């Protein structure tokens, strides 16, 4: 069962990354090539806007449960950067839940801000893992693992920090669509 959950998380990350790249390319195509919104882009924006609270809650909850799964079930010790990333994803579950109940679109700006900070940390963490280049001291301290330690590498690029990068980028993109209609 444990192996299936890990593989599911890896596949969800892979699919999310493919969709994310396709959506970004679609928006760039609209902005710079056709200079208008396509029917597909309009439909996609509508789906995201109409389901923003549920999507945000689902993504933040999946990221939260995924991080807890890796640390509390598989026993992967979180490093300092993992803890910092958790600071920026965990509260979003509660924020999206409350915003969904109140239908409060102001959550978008909070989610963008938290996701931007978390995404920067996750990107730095990913860089450290992939290059094995410690830009700053992130060595083992007490209960914490080294930030350069890779517990796994799937499909040639997916690590735990890449899963976080994906979640944060999706939350940023969805928040921008909800707020500004890109």
Sheet with the most strands, sense and barrel status = none
Residue ranges: pLDDT <50 for 5 or more in a row? none
What form results from the Cα inertia axes? Answer: globular
> Nearest-angstrom radius of gyration?
17 Å
Q: Would you tell me the overall average pLDDT? A: 92
Oligomer: single chain
Strand content range: under 5%
Report the helical percentage: over 70%
Helix tally equals 6
CATH architecture: Up-down Bundle
* Measured distance between first and last alpha carbons: 41 Å
Number of strands: 0
Structural class: mainly alpha
CATH class: Mainly Alpha
Count of distinct structural domains: 1
Order of helices and strands: HHHHHH
CATH topology: Bromodomain-like
Task: Describe the protein.
With 182 residues, this protein is mostly helical. The chain has one domain (2-180): Bromodomain-like, CATH 1.20.1550. The chain is built from six helices and no strands. The chain has helices at residues 2-34, 39-50, 52-73, 80-102, 107-131, 160-180. Helix 3 (52-73) packs antiparallel against helix 4. The chain is globular and about 45 Å long.
